[in-house]
Every structure is written in C-alpha cells, then in structure tokens.
Design a protein that fits this description.
Two copies of one chain form a homodimer. By secondary structure, chain A is an alpha/beta fold. Chain A has a single domain, classed as Aminopeptidase. Chain A is 23% helix and 28% strand. Chain A has five helices and nine strands; from the N terminus they run αβββααβββαβαββ. In chain A, strands 1-2-3-4-5-6-7 form a seven-stranded mixed β-sheet. In chain A, strand 2 and strand 3 form a beta hairpin. Chains A and B meet through helix 1, helix 3, strand 5, strand 6 and strand 7 of A and helix 1, helix 3, strand 5, strand 6 and strand 7 of B. Strand 9 of chain A pairs antiparallel with strand 7 of chain B, so a sheet runs across the interface.
C-alpha cells in the first residue's frame, strides 16, 4: 500500500484489502445463519436484504453485515489504523460514504458489545458499473473466510441492483484472492490506470 | 473492445476510448479560444467553469465542451454506433448519466447546426476517487488533439472538485495515450480487475 500512502498523500487508500479473510454484517435486526468452525461460508449470506447475522460455531460471538451508512467515523478510523492506512480527513470520509452507492460494514457482537471489524464501499453509476474501494478486514479477524463473505455479500447486493460490471484495483498479493471470487485481472489486456498530477 | 461486447453483452463498454484525438465543449454561452490549425491545445481549456468554446483556425467550425447532462440520448447512441459499440438500453444510459458525478460532451458547431462529436463521464464518491467511463470521440474528429483536450478538461474539472485519484480502464492500444496525460498503468503492480459472473 506504499503507493497509495506516498502518491496520494494518504488521501486515497484501501483500493485493495490489507487483509482478506472473514466477515459478516450488523443490523438492528437480522437473520441468523449457522457457520462452520471459524469459517464463514457463502451459505451465511442472506438471500435478500441488507442485514444478516452469522454466528461462529460453538461460541457466543456473532458477526453481522450492515449496509447502514450512519457509521461512527472514529470507529472506522480505528479499523483503518489497525491495517496501517494513513489517516484521511473525517469530513472527506463522511462525504465519500454519503456518495458511495453501497456501503457494507461488518460487525462482531459479543453479548451487548459490538465492534466494527470490516468495511467496504462501492461507487457506481447506478446502472452499469460499480467500483470497490476501502476494502478492509481487521487483522484480528483475518484468515476466517470473512473477507470472502464480505465480498460475496457485496457482489450479491450489486447484482440485485442490476449492476453487471464490478471493478476494483487490487494489490498484487490479493489478486489471487479476488480471482477466486470471479474477478479477472487485465481482461484482454485492459489496464487499470491512475492519474498522477504533474 | 471485444471483451466488453462479449463478456458483458454490450451492457458495458467505452472504458477506454475507441478514438482519441481532438475535442472541446458546448455551452449556451461560452468563451472563445484561439486554436492552432487542426489542433486543440491545452490553452483552449477554460481556467474555470464548465463551458468553453474553441474554433478551428481558419474555419467557421467551432468546438465546445459542455457538462450539461440533458443530452439527446439518440444522438449519443449515434455517436456510440459510429465507434462500433453495441447498443445499451436507453433507460439505463439515462440512469447512468444521471448518477455520474461528471458528464462532459463535445460539440461541433457549423453555423446554426451543432453535432455531438465526443463524450465522457465519471463516477465518483465526491471526495477521493473518480473513475472514467464511456470515453469516445467520433471517428471523423480523431487525430486532431480533441481527445486530449477532452481529457484535460475532465481532469481539470475533477481537480477543481478536489478529486485527487482519477482512475480508468484502458484498452492496450490507448495506454500510451493516457500515459502522456499523466495516467500510470498498474502502479506498484496494482491490478485493475473485473468481476465476471460464474
């Protein structure tokens, strides 16, 4: 992620996940889904709706997905800090969230406490294309299939909105992760390019 | 552009320009800029505002840029037909234009007649990122520096909105074109990826 930190002075980052592992959603109410031990499978994803609930087998820890964009920005900043992203002005983060087409957050719930453990958002023209940004899973929750579940939830939501072209910019070490989800790098030699001021 | 036509059944295309050459803007009113013969230079771009006017030296043909998104969709379809793109439902094109952050059209004016000769739009989170889509210059108007002028106008507009990360997906044969404008392919190995349904 050095590129993002240096080139854009911390104003842009998270174009690919620092960590891809496990994830699910939070909602004021949610459906519950059984999970294999330590693994969030695609079956944990809801057929419809923006809220779902998963539970780690054999524990009282639950994990939720939410599309509610009324997030505590300090909590989001804390999550981004945990994966080493440089800080961005909260005013701009708030604006970016407001103007994203889809925002997905992932929450762990232990008893009465909930914790933001993952995040992703997508910009879109609401018709053809969506582009994913700020994909992140907290390091403590990586390696459990939650990143995959987060992405599958997000893809499902975008597909339900009739978006057929989903794009992203992936760091080299997560290209294979995205490939397993059906993302193709450079199809027919098409290059992702980034504008850099003179 | 075969990939876009085949993979996404014509629902997505124009992620890179079919033709990159010359361009300027239309507005109900506009400033006029001198031009070198057959070449639209960067000096033709307005310092601010969404409308500008350029004139091909030694002719009564003028070229305008506009950010007005109230376009005749049939005229836009005709432009896209001219570069061989497969047709998209106008209902979705309309929606995509409505929900784009920035729409730039390029017009040729001969006397009382005006003609749409170029187009580009950008999705954005209004804060950090913008992604360019549907970049097109009519084949009759390529090779005159208008594509470059169109892109410079667009970049200037995005920069004026404090967008610092401008991205696009370029066909191999236009990567060098975008490079001259300051776009970098795969910086630090970051890959543009596209989701493809199973």
């Amino acid at each position: 992620m050095g590129f993002w930190k240096n080139l854009f002075s911390g104003s842009v980052r998270g174009e690919s996940p620092e960590a891809m592992a496990s994830s699910v959603n939070y909602g004021a109410s949610g459906e519950e889904f059984p999970l294999g031990a330590g693994e969030v499978s695609s079956q944990t994803l809801p057929d419809s709706g923006s809220q779902s609930l998963s539970r780690f087998a054999g524990s009282n820890v639950r994990v939720f997905f939410s599309t509610d964009r009324d997030l505590d920005l300090y909590e989001l900043e804390e999550l981004c800090d945990a994966v080493g992203w440089s800080r961005r002005p909260l005013r701009k983060v708030k604006k970016a969230i407001q103007h994203s087409f889809l925002v997905v957050s992932m929450w762990e719930v232990r008893g009465a406490k909930r914790r933001l453990i993952g995040f992703c958002r997508a910009t879109s023209d609401h018709a053809f294309n969506a582009t994913l940004w700020d994909v992140v899973v907290h390091p403590d929750y990586q390696g459990k299939g939650l990143g995959k579940a987060l992405m599958k939830f997000l893809i499902k939501k975008l597909r339900s909105e009739d978006i057929s072209n989903i794009t992203l910019f992936a760091d080299p070490h997560v290209v294979d992760f995205y490939r397993t989800l059906g993302f193709m790098p450079d199809p027919e030699g098409i290059k992702g390019m980034f504008w850099y001021p003179d």
